[in-house]
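Lab meeting, action items carried over

1. Structure of the two-component assembly. Owner: GW. Status: complete.
Input record:
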Amino acid sequence: MKNESGIPDLTRIVGRIEDLPTLPRTFLRITELVNNPRSSAKDLAKVVTDDQVLTVRLLRLVNSSFYGFPQKISTVTSAIVLLGFDAMRNLLLTTSIFDLFSNRNRKGRLRLEKLWDHSLGCAVGAKVIGNYLRYDKIEELFVSGLLHDIGKIVEMLFLPKDFTKVTSMVESRDILMVTAENYILGYTHADIGKFLAEKWNLPPKLESVIANHHQPGLSERFLQETAIVHLADILCRALNMGSGGDRKIPPLDREAWEILELELSTIGPILEEMESEFEDVRQFVRHSP
Amino acid sequence: MISVGINRLKSGMVLAKPVHSLHGVLLLDKGDELTEKNIWMLKSWGVSQIWLEGGHEEKKDLQPENKIKPSIREELREKFSGVLEDHVMAEIMRAAGEQLEKRLLKNEK
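Predicted assembly:
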C-alpha cells in the first residue's frame, strides 16, 4: 500500500498541523499516579473527584452493563478498587477522546458522530472478540478500538482541504477511505494516528494498533491486538454501526485471521453479542455530560 | 461432528472430543453427556468452544433459515463486493444479515 519512502510526508503533516489537540492535564496526572507503584486508590480518587465530569462518567461506567457488577457502586474509591488502575487510565483516555469527537462546528458534526459510533462499534467488537480469546486486558482492547481511526478525526478537523478531496473521491468511486488517502495524499489516517500516538506518548501497544489496523502483519510485537481490532473494524462495518467515512468493507487479512484461531462458527455469536452490547455502551458515553 | 460455542450448549448434548482446561487438565471426556452442572463448570473454566457429536439438530440451531429481507441482502452484497471470495468474509456477511434482520424486526415493533 504505502511506499517505503513515506517518511517525508509525515514531516509535511507535522508542519501543517500547528495546534494538535492535547490530552488534558488530569490525564497526565493520573498516568503518573498509575505508573507509581506507591500510589493508592485514595490518591487516585482525589484527582478524580476534583473533576466533576470525570466523577460522573466513572460512576456511570462502573454501573453500566459493560462491567456488570451485581451491586450499585456509589463511591469513586470503590469504583477504582473494582476497576483497577489501568482501567481507570483507559477510562480517562476514552473520555478525553470523546471530548475531541464532540467538536464545535455544525457542519462536520454528523460525520464526527458517525465516526464516533464506528469507533465505539469497533471498541465493542474488540472487547467481545477479546472475551472469546480470553484476552486478559479487555479495557485495553476497548480503548484500542475506540482510537483506531483517530487519524481520521485529525484529518477532518486539522487538514480539512485534504479531507474534502479524500471524501469526494471515496464517494464518487465507492472505495475505502484508506485507498483514497493513499492515492491522493500518499499517506493515510493510520500514519497520522501513529504520529499522534507518538506525540501523546500513548502506550506502544495502542500505537501499533492505530498504525497497523489495515495491515496487521506489519505489527510485530502486538500482532494479536492489532488482528483483533482489524477484525472488529470489519465486523462493526458489517453491522452498520456508525460509519468510518466509506461504505466498503476492508478485506480480511489472512495472517490476522489465522493467528486469532477463531472458529468460523463463532462469528455469529460474536456479532450477536456486539449487537446487544453496542446500544448499551453507546448510552453511557453518548449521554455523558 | 460440529464445533459449538459455550453459550449454545444444552444438557443432553454429547461430546465428540475431550475438553481440556487452558492448563491441560481433562475436564470432560469424549462421549460424555452434558448436564446443566457441567456446562456451568465448563464456563467457569473459561472453555469457549467444544466439539459435539452429530450435528443435525444443532446445525439447524447454528444456521437458521436464510430469511433475510432483499433490501438488507442487497446492501450487504454491495458493501462486501470484492471481498467475498474469502469464506470468512462470506460467513461474516451471512451472520451480519441475520443480525440486521433481527434489528429491523425489533425496531418495527
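2. GW to write a short summary for the group page. Key points so far: The two ends of chain A are 41 Å apart (CA to CA). Chain A touches chain B through 25 residues (CB under 8 Å).
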